[in-house]
Amino acid sequence: MAQISPEVADILRRATIKGTHLTLPPRLDRSEYLAVNAVIENLGGKWSRKDKAHVFASSDAFVALDEALDRGAFTDRKKELQYFPTPDALARRMAELANVSNGDCVLEPSAGQGSIVNALLFYTPRIVAVEIDPTNCLALATQRHIEPHCADFLDWAEEADGVEFDAVVMNPPFCKGQDIAHVYAAWRLLKTGGRLVAITSPGWQFRQDKLHTAFASWLKDLGAITTELEPGTFKESGTDVRTTLIVMKKDK
């Protein structure tokens, strides 16, 4: 958990809330604004120049804000939940690589606030989106044509008996091999003939432990196409982590 200082809490309590909009008190200095903005963004608020306010997907987010202020701390979603949104250009590239046809049912296992989902909607209106963060789930629930599930994907996949998808497009968390576990779980839910497009850590290309070498061998056996993405691809999302793009088709 990240702590909220008394000064930041006071500023947020003096903010004006109307509907889904939060307007901060005037004349904040830069350090105050950055500290306040960190809390707001972690709760799903985004600055709108047009509205001159931070806008949330739902007014329910203000309940979470009150709870955070009461306990003096908030969840750092980037560190604890590994939430780094997929840049729009990359999301569009992934959606195209999935070779989705209109009417196909597509799974996004770590949907965040819908970067990949929005790109997929250009090709098909049938999206199942799984997301662990309740704040992000609020944003997903406002979008049409999406079937949202607020859950840990690995738990959800275990219970999804008999469910299969025409394609899976995903940007899973990387920490402690979660990306590998998520890809394995998503592959099991993919129909024969479907495609899986995933962002992963490149660790499986050079690490020699059992988990990573087995994953590298598995990808090779399945004929996966892998591309190392340009450094800084996720810089706008708040990380310089190296990433690899994987595309694979589930043949018989």
Explained architecture:
The protein is an alpha/beta fold. It has two domains: 2-75, no CATH class; 88-249, Vaccinia Virus protein VP39 (Rossmann fold, 3-Layer(aba) Sandwich). It contains ten helices and 13 strands. The protein has helices spanning 6-13, 30-42, 61-71, 77-80, 88-97, 115-120, 134-141, 153-159, 178-188, 210-221, and strands at residues 2-3, 16-18, 21-23, 46-48, 53-55, 73-74, 105-108, 126-131, 146-150, 165-170, 190-200, 225-228, 244-249. The chain has a seven-stranded mixed sheet, with helices on both faces. A four-stranded antiparallel sheet has the order 2-3-5-4, with no helix packed on it. Strand 4 and strand 5 form a beta hairpin. Helix 8 (153-159) packs parallel to helix 9. The longest helix is centred in the N-terminal third of the chain and has 13 residues, at 30-42. The termini are far apart. The model has no long low-confidence stretch (mean pLDDT 89).
